[in-house]
Write a structure and sequence with these properties.
The protein has four helices and no strands. With 235 residues, the chain is mainly alpha-helical.
Amino acid sequence: DEDSLSLLLCLQRKKKQAQLMQKALEVKKETFRERMKAISCQWRDLHAKDAQLKTYMEKSERVIKENDKMRIKALKKASKDRERKIQKESELLRAKRELEALRNTHQKLCNRVQKFSIFKKYLEDVVKISQFEEIQEVIWRYKTLVRMRKDLLQSERGCKEMSKQAEVLLEQYTVDKAAEFQRYENELVQLQLRFEQAQSDVLPWEARWADIQNTSAEKTLKLGTIKMAIFNLFQ
């Protein structure tokens, strides 16, 4: 659909270019007609001058011996007239070539307009069955949706990045609590060893053993609380 809209925009630009080319072609045609009229007038003048030149040459032949300077002047004038005639013919040929090039360009543009007219028809059908009144409104709506989609994708990438950071922090927190749990287990093992050592000391250490047992109970309770807290945090 984005390609279709791009093609539609291209179609509209080409259509506008075709209109401009059509106007330019009409201007060229008008200029060409005016130039043809001017050249036709010049051709008539040249033919008239050529006839006059022939008459003049006939007269000059009769008096060539008497006035050689006049003959040379006439020859120079005839040469200039021929040069102007050649120049006009060259201009006419160049104008014909330019006109042919403009016609070819106009035909190509017309072919491209015809080729992309299907996309215009499609958008016109969309306007008919939608709440939009013009094709340009459909294009504006599409551009707005594209910008919103880009913003949503960017927001989604930001959320994913924050989620990854949260996972890293949770993993680090879990590792720290696991190390702390291991430390408490080691302390519990040490307390157990001390308890066993105290049992071997029998009576003199009973009072101390009671204290140690109470301490061990507190540590065990604290450890259980820590385990539960770690488990809850892990969940």
